[in-house]
Structure formats: C-alpha cells, structure tokens
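Hi all, long-time lurker, first post. I run a small reading group and we've been trying to get comfortable going from sequence to structure in the token notation. Rather than ask abstract questions, I figured I'd post a concrete chain and ask someone more experienced to write out its structure so we can walk through it together at our next meeting. Sequence below, copied exactly:
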Amino acid sequence: MGMVKVLILGLGMAGTTFTVGLERIKRGEIPPYGVPLADVDLGVEISDIEIVGAIDVDVRKVGSTAYEVATKLYGMEHVPQSLDEIRVYPGLGAKYVKDLFPTHDEGESWEEELERVYETFKKLRPDVIIDVTTTQEGKTYVDWAEYEEDVARGTAAPSQAYAFLALKYAREEAPVAYVNLIPTPVANSPAIVDAARDFGAVIFGDDGATGATPLTADLLEHLKERNRKVYSIAQFNIGGNTDFLALTDERRNRAKEGTKSSVVKDVLGYDVPHYIKPTGFLEPLGDKKFVAMHIMFESFNGAVDEIIVNMRISDSPALAGYMVDLARLGKLAIELELYGTIYEVNAFYMKKPAPLGSKNLPRIVAYHKLLEFIRKATERRELVEEVSA
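-- Answer (accepted) --
Happy to help. Here is the structure in token form:
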C-alpha cells in the first residue's frame, strides 16, 4: 500500500513518545512491545509509517522540531537525530489550554486560524491524522448544520474543529483517516461520521483505553461469566503529566469520566454503584500514573469477595503503542474505502467506542472481533489487488 503519512495533533508526551519509539522500532533498536498488532499482517508495515509533522499550541514547541521537543522539553534519551526533520506547526484553540502552559498566539481571527491549519493539512498531505491533544469538553453533534455553524463561530471543541478540517480535506483533496484518542465526542457525533461516509474519510474514536479501563472491562466479564453479583466498583487514577493537570478542570474531568464509566453497564448488563474517574494531579508522579481499583462481589452461598488492584502504568507509552496500530488500520480502511467509522477497531482501542450508542466490550472479546475484521479486510484487499492487476 505504500507509505502511511501521519500528522500528529498535540505533540505532548504521548505524541512525542510515539515519534521516538516508532523511529527506534524502524531502526531495529527496540522490539515493538506494546503494539498489539505488531505481528499481524495488515498489508501495512510499521516501517511504512512516516510522521510528516505535528501541530501544537504550546509556544515552547511551535516552530521547533520533534527532536528538540523530545530532548530539550521532555529530556528523553535515545532520541534519533532523524526526528529533527519533523516540524511542529501552530494549531487551533490556544485559549482552551492557556491555563496549562504558555500558548502560541499569532493574533489571528478564528477564521484565519482555521484557514492556516487547513493549509498545513494541504501542505503535509497526511493519510492519517492522530489527535492526542489535551482533553476538552465538547457536545455530541447530530445535525451537520449546527456542527458547521459552531466550528465557524469557534464554539466547537478544538478537536471537533480539527475533525471538520479533516472532513474538508477528504472532500476537496484526498481520503484521510482521523483518529480521536481524547474524550471529546468526534466518532460519537453522528453528524461527523455521516459526513465522513459521504466525503471519503474514516473516523476512529473516542478516547484511547490504555490502563485501568480495559482491565476493569475484562475483570467484570470474568465475574459475569461466573455469575457473580457485583455490588460496587471504585477505580481512580492519579498522574503527574499535562493531561492529568488538565483534568483538574471539572469540565474536562466530566468528559473523561463519561467515557470511562460507560463500561460498567455495557459489560455486566446492569448498573452498580461505581466511582470511575481520574482523581488528581501529583506532579512528582510524572507520566507514570498510579491506578487503584476495588470491586466487591457476591459468590456462591452468599460469600462476599473483593478484587483489589494497585498499578503503576507509564501513561504515554501505553497510548503510543496504540497509535502505531491505528495509523496502519487507518491506511487500510481508506485504501478499502471503509468510510465512516469501524466499530471493531473502536471497541478494542477506545473507552467510548463509536458509533454513538455502541457498547463497550471486554477487551479479550473485542480483540477477537478485531482480528476477524482484519481477516475479512485482508481478503477484500487481496481481491482488490487481483482485480487491479
């Protein structure tokens, strides 16, 4: 299928870890651990992924390179010098995150910002756009006219404005896949998915599920299969990176809580008292978040038991491994013209799998559904190649 050109929205720790780790895998310096489909044939190799640029609103990053961000801002080691070729371009919606870090502001109108970013899309010509910007609150769009109007007025969330520009790019320039790894409803907005189907775009989302959420889903499936009655669930995360700092804002936290909590009823078939949300920011923890979980349940003859889990998880590398897969799956989807959204992909990788109204699945179940989707897609790709030949 050729190269997969990837544009990153938000060169934070996750995006930077992705750029560094991907290049090291391609150089043979490290094995592809943390990439779920590393050994699965998608017709798109990891070595085919090329990062063509990044977009950010942090003044410390804009105008610099991915190499400089990794080494000078984040102090990472083993950073390939080749990342000096990846430039960071100015993005949208600096006002939404000016409370978190110094933002880049060119004194433009919102209309000028949209046009500038769209020109960046046209210049870089990505096949896949991956959104790992800071968590933002946003509403679900059912009506296209309302969505278009909110983007034009600057009242849609930045991620939804980026998605709008991606749809415009698909309609006017070339097919593109948009991967939304934050909680803002993009893939769960029917207006966006319907437009993607019409314009020639693929939308994956929403909100990458990398830590406690997939584990919770699998534990609940374990209890359900054994007919054990769950009484309560407590799960919380504390971290020290910028995303956890952003979640100290109640509006942003609500967006994240909504995507995390949906797993309970979806898996069990009934709701139970639960507290599932990011809880706090503690800077010394850095990118290695602390996760605690407690599940109380009843077993045979009235026995009441508990599951207690404590974990430390490197937050950004967990998501970065998914980004490798999703870049390849995005390319596969647009090559096969599977426009709109794809539940089998979303169910495995996302906390709030699209389309709107879809259920969360235990990840072991979702994994096998994903493999079945890939098998059928591979057969379709081979048929297309035969016809083309």
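A couple of things your group might point at:
Residues 336 and 384 are 8 Å apart (CA to CA).
The radius of gyration is 20 Å.
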